[in-house]
Write a structure and sequence with these properties.
This protein is 54% helix and 14% strand. It is of the alpha+beta class. It has two domains: 137 residues, no CATH class; 41 residues. Helix 2 runs antiparallel to helix 3 and helix 4 packs parallel to helix 8. The longest helix has 27 residues. The relative contact order is 0.08.
Length: 201
C-alpha cells in the first residue's frame, strides 16, 4: 500500500511538472510580448501544484525565481510586484536557508562541512542565481543581494584583484565613479564577466 501511495505521488509530481514545462515554453518565447506573462502565471499555478504534490520547496522556488527574473528582464517591470526586481530580491532573501553571515562562514570551508550544510549552501546558490539576470536593472539596491562579494575598496585606483575571485576596475566620469565587479566564468584565469556595477557620487 505504501508503494502505491509513493507511485501516486510521483504521478502527480510528473503531471504538474509537465503542465509547468508546457507553459514555460510559451512564457519564454520573446515574440509573444506581454502574453508571456499570462503563460508565466499558468506556469506558476502549476508550480504551486507541484509543491503540493511533494516536490521540495527549494526546487520549486528556483523555478519560480528563474521565470520571474526572465520576464523582469524582458518584457520588463510593469508595476506588478510579481515583475518587480526589488520584490524578487525580497522573496529570494526570505527563502534563503542561511543568513549572509552564516553562508560566508560555511563557504570558507565548505568541503569540510556535513552533507546537510553543503546542501544548504547549494540551495543559497541556486536561489540567488536568478538575481544575476536583473542585477543591472537596479544597480545599487540589488547588487549586494545578487552578489554578496567582498567589499569594494573605498579608494579608487588602478584595477586590482580582490579575495574570492572578484576583480574590480574603476574609472571616473563627470564627478561620478563607476566600479565594475567581475567574476571568473571558467577555469581560464583570463576569463571574467561583468557581475554588476556600483556607483559612487
Amino acid at each position: 500500500m505504501g508503494g502505491g501511495g509513493a507511485e501516486f505521488t510521483e504521478d502527480r509530481v510528473n503531471q504538474w511538472l509537465g503542465v509547468y514545462q508546457a507553459n514555460l515554453l510559451y512564457a519564454q518565447e520573446r515574440g509573444r510580448g506581454e502574453d508571456r506573462r499570462i503563460w508565466a502565471r499558468v506556469a506558476f499555478a502549476a508550480l504551486d501544484g507541484l509543491e503540493r504534490a511533494g516536490c521540495p520547496a527549494r526546487d520549486v522556488n528556483t523555478r519560480r525565481f528563474n521565470l520571474r527574473a526572465l520576464l523582469i528582464t524582458d518584457p520588463g517591470p510593469n508595476g506588478d510586484p510579481l515583475w518587480s526586481p526589488e520584490q524578487l530580491a525580497v522573496d529570494v532573501l526570505r527563502n534563503l536557508p542561511l543568513s549572509l553571515e552564516q553562508a560566508r562562514e560555511w563557504a570558507a570551508d565548505w568541503t569540510a562541512r556535513p552533507r546537510h550544510e553543503m546542501q544548504a549552501l547549494r540551495t543559497c546558490k541556486s536561489l540567488i542565481k536568478p538575481m544575476e539576470l536583473v542585477a543591472g536593472l537596479r544597480p545599487r539596491p540589488l547588487f549586494r543581494i545578487a552578489a554578496p562579494e567582498p567589499a569594494v575598496p573605498k579608494k579608487v585606483g588602478p584595477p586590482g584583484l580582490l579575495t574570492g575571485g572578484t576583480r574590480w576596475a574603476a574609472n571616473g566620469t563627470g564627478g561620478r565613479t563607476t566600479r565594475t565587479l567581475r567574476c571568473r566564468t571558467g577555469s581560464s584565469p583570463g576569463r571574467w564577466r561583468e557581475r554588476g556595477r556600483v556607483f559612487d557620487t
